[in-house]
Amino acid sequence: MTTPQGYRLVSVDQTRASEVLHVDAFAFAFTVPDKDAGFIQDVLPWERTRAVEVADPVRGTEGTLAAVHASFKFGTRVPGGREVPTAGLSWVGVHPGHRRRGLLRAMIGDHFSRSLARGEAISTLFAAETQIYQRFGYGMAATEARVQLGRGVELRPLPGSENLIVEVDSASIERHGPTIASIQSRMTRPGTVSTLAPQTLADVLMDLEIDRDGSEELRIATVRDGDDPVAWALFQRKQEWGDTGPDGKVRVRAWGALGAAATVRLWGVLADFDLMSATHAGRFAPDDPLLLRLKDMRAAKITLTDNLWVRILDVAEALEARGYAADCDVTVQVDDSFLPQNAGVWRVLVAAGEAKVTREGAADPASADLRLDVQELGAAYLGGTTITELTRAQLVDERTPGTAAELSRAMASDVKPVANFGF
Ligand SMILES: CC(C)(COP(=O)(O)OP(=O)(O)OC[C@H]1O[C@@H](n2cnc3c(N)ncnc32)[C@H](O)[C@@H]1OP(=O)(O)O)[C@@H](O)C(=O)NCCC(=O)NCCS
Fold this sequence. Notes:
By secondary structure, the chain is of the alpha+beta class. It folds into 3 domains: 7-141, Aminopeptidase, CATH 3.40.630.30; 144-171 and 207-306, 3-Layer(aba) Sandwich (Aminopeptidase), CATH 3.40.630; 310-411, Nonspecific Lipid-transfer Protein, Chain A, CATH 3.30.1050. It contains 12 helices and 22 strands. Coenzyme A binds next to helix 1, strand 4 and helix 3.
């Protein structure tokens, strides 16, 4: 991967924090007052933060940063209850004065090779704009439902859930970081960030004045079963008054729950604050217990959107790292223009939930049972989008009848994937 002429890829450490923030502030159109700018020190994983620097005066002042990105180190829950080492791409920004010169493309190449060198078989991200990352092989692996819950939304009752203990507090990494990490580590839904580094927690709990838009500081609701934390939610309320009285809004930024009782208890609180008329939230998997327990799902004004995007960096390692729901033995021709080492024919042999994935070196690519782009493999990786669905959409080419269904059954997950917080 070549860096565009006049630029060079560099590592950046904390001493260049304000320069990194400067680039992202220009890229994402926000301004952080100097007094609040220190947050970036805690949020970025500095040993995994990279930038593109101006190397030639024709491009600008030599040594200034033109583009930045970082990748969080975490474990992602995958089908079969396992965890896969992941590079969570984030804080990607190219200064508007340097865009459309190939700097993002150069950073993605850099990100992929550094992630592979660290043994991270997949990279995931939340996309600011959905078209940006597909060209680099990221597939939409999870969708999320967004809802608007009216005050006191009615849920089908779940006996015993009212006995769970709820605490509401101002969010603090010291007080609540361990609770969030503990719940995340026990969540089984594919797509969950199950092991978090301190910087990822700091990113989740980031509470900048500029993001508040008139609402209160970041609050947290936690649910406990005795001493055992079973749910958390970060939220902010904004006071508003209408002609007929209070009309405040609650925005839930991120949340996680272990099971239906914890979910019901948590949302019973989040959707019933005094003076608030509606609660806006997302990060619901389409099969989330809350959606299934709503008495009036129309009133919740549910919309569906993209959630987590997955890029398979190492086909054999990524496919062998997850669990499978059924046996299969199929050959797959994978196209990967960005990481050619993944391209070619692979045999996926699954027995008793374990895959053995080997390269079929001598095989004529045209003889493979299925052909797909690595983007589709990423889309199917967490078991949400199925190979059968992708085949029906003609995004997978089935050459041997029945093999799409065979691989589909193996890769499918009973539980739909979702990542319950953005990064
Ligand atoms: C999006 C952004 C990172 C692109 O950076 P860039 O250096 O201009 O991108 P490149 O020149 O490397 O472009 C690479 C390819 O992506 C395409 N592309 C870039 N931005 C795109 C966008 N917003 N939508 C669709 N395609 C886009 C380019 O057309 C190019 O296509 P090609 O491969 O067919 O030539 C940059 O414009 C930016 O920082 N935007 C604001 C912040 C943002 O959205 N960050 C992403 C956070 S998830």
